[in-house]
Amino acid sequence: ASPAAGEQQSNGETADKRHKAALILARGGSKGIPLKNIKSLAGIPLLGWVLRAAVDSELFDSVWVSTDHDDIEKVALSWGVQIHRRSAEVSKDTSSSMDTIQEFIRLNPEVDIVCHIQATSPCLHPFHLKEALEFITEQGYDSVFAVVRQHHFRWQEVKKDLGELTHPLNLDPSNRPRRQDWDGELCENGSFYISHRELIKEQGHMQGRKVAYYEMRPEYSVDIDVDIDWPVAEQRVLRYGYFGCVPPEVVKLMFCNISGCLTEGSIFLSVSGEEMVSINTRDTAGIRMLQKEGVEVILLTSSLDPFEKTLSKKVSARLGCKVLCVGEQRLDDLETLVKERKLSWKDVAFMGNDEIDVKCLNVAGLSAVPSDAPVVAKNAAKYMCAAPGGKGAMWEFTEHILLQKCKAKSQLEQDRIDRASS
């Protein structure tokens, strides 16, 4: 296929008008990790990382999630994408990805180019998709797929009980190269496969005709298959993941609910009738880390679930934070404080844990909920903690806030270098 499907632009270039669809396959019956595709990875459902990259790339006429599971469908819809509800015929354990892709193009005849993105590749960025898609839209290729360069010496597998001997597959042991002297090998990393619908229909795969590869750097090549991969992938994503097209936020003001976030929501009564709460020392350390970085922290109590005034004073004195009682319209209550400090909500971090917090979770530059928050609050938050309220959630959100601050500093430094070199 050629760019003849496009039309001439004012600059003389041809605009490719073919319908390009991003398709993420997310079956509910994962054998390795149950519902792996929506398990939280660094505060975001695994599926969300690639959906964010696909949507923000602005390359596709449509973005789809193909699934057979209601919970996966709900998460996908929260990212504003379309759903291909796959049939029972292509939802079996024996069904291949190609079975589902072929069903998708049959049901969506308007689609000309399919970009199959793996949900298990959370370090995918929009620029990867843009540069790869250009092989098809600008250079006339029919298919392109992602690879990573590896430096692994491979040996033939043998059946030892048959007395077989192994032998090298890609090296000469007598002339073993140094790593820096060997270019390595290109291996599929599974991040994405892009192809014309005609190729898929006629050949039953996505790597044919005039085919190209797109090389991704190793730090972006993350694939998650088993639980042991999860903590490693989480650290990689925090460093190399795509956090959105908006520059990382630098928080200057933090609001946090006491009940349900800083505490587990319980108030204890002593024999003498004195009220007490339990606060995790890691969470108090997180507050002090923010204060050390110049972030003002204000703790919130609710008029609907009032903290005893004496208890509020003790918490305020111990943590060095102002404690503020807010009502049902807490966004209105906090708006005045934000304006008094000559800030906008993008400069604010908010940690809530209930439906009443949804508006604040939506408008804050960074927002989070503990893992035991209700679904309505989780859907509004930009970060979902792995820890429940009162058991390290505040500490976890603090680390996320400070990581975004480091990213912002790095971006500013890179911008400075770019301006100096231009």
From TrEMBL:
Protein keywords: Nucleotidyltransferase, Transferase
Reaction catalyzed: an N-acylneuraminate + CTP = a CMP-N-acyl-beta-neuraminate + diphosphate
One GO molecular-function entry: N-acylneuraminate cytidylyltransferase activity
Biological pathway: Amino-sugar metabolism; N-acetylneuraminate metabolism
UniProt key word Signal: no
Family according to the record: Belongs to the CMP-NeuNAc synthase family.
PANTHER family listed in its UniProt record: HAD SUPERFAMILY MEMBERS CMAS AND KDSC (PTHR21485), N-ACYLNEURAMINATE CYTIDYLYLTRANSFERASE (PTHR21485:SF3)
UniProt name for this protein: N-acylneuraminate cytidylyltransferase
Species: Neogobius melanostomus (round goby)
Record lineage: Eukaryota, Metazoa, Chordata, Craniata, Vertebrata
